[in-house]
Amino acid sequence: MSRPLRRGVVGRSLAARSGRARTRGAGAATLVAIGLVLLASAPPRADATIATQQAVEESLTCQCGCGLTVHSCNHLQCNSATPLKREIAEQIASGQTQEQILDYFEHKYGEKILSAPGTSGFNLTAWVVPYLGIGLGGLLIGVVLTRWRRGSAPVSSGEHSAVSHPPTPPGAADNQELRARLERELEEYDRRS
Question: Taking all residues of the chain, what is their mean pLDDT, rounded to a whole number?
Fold first, then answer.
């Protein structure tokens, strides 16, 4: 025969297990936090600032009106991309970093030449608004789904009805007669089939 477990032993065992799980979860969260701090405080790599022709061309917008970057402009002998490519090559040959080259072109042509908006001032909204919209949309969907789930109450086991009826509004006594007639006819139909 097996011995029945005492209630106190089982409770202590479950508490010990959940305590260990909590400790493991806290340890994992601590490791993730430390990793993020180290990643954020790491110095930039030296090769990240070295300018390449393609990287700079992809960071600048072609001014011919095509809406593409200088690198991907598909106009043959484009009157904007061709001189910009030459100017980029001269800047790289003079030993400029990518940031310096982009600053030069932004100063010369204005902010419109950059293919991505900056991360300061009003341009920050271009980076924040899409994520904010996705977050608010998800929240709205969650609220709607929660309300829908709360609105559909389960039918109790004592009721035998194929159709759930909404509550009758006050002053709808005439509808009660029609509802009773409908119920009788539905029951009669169920018995026939």
Answer: 75
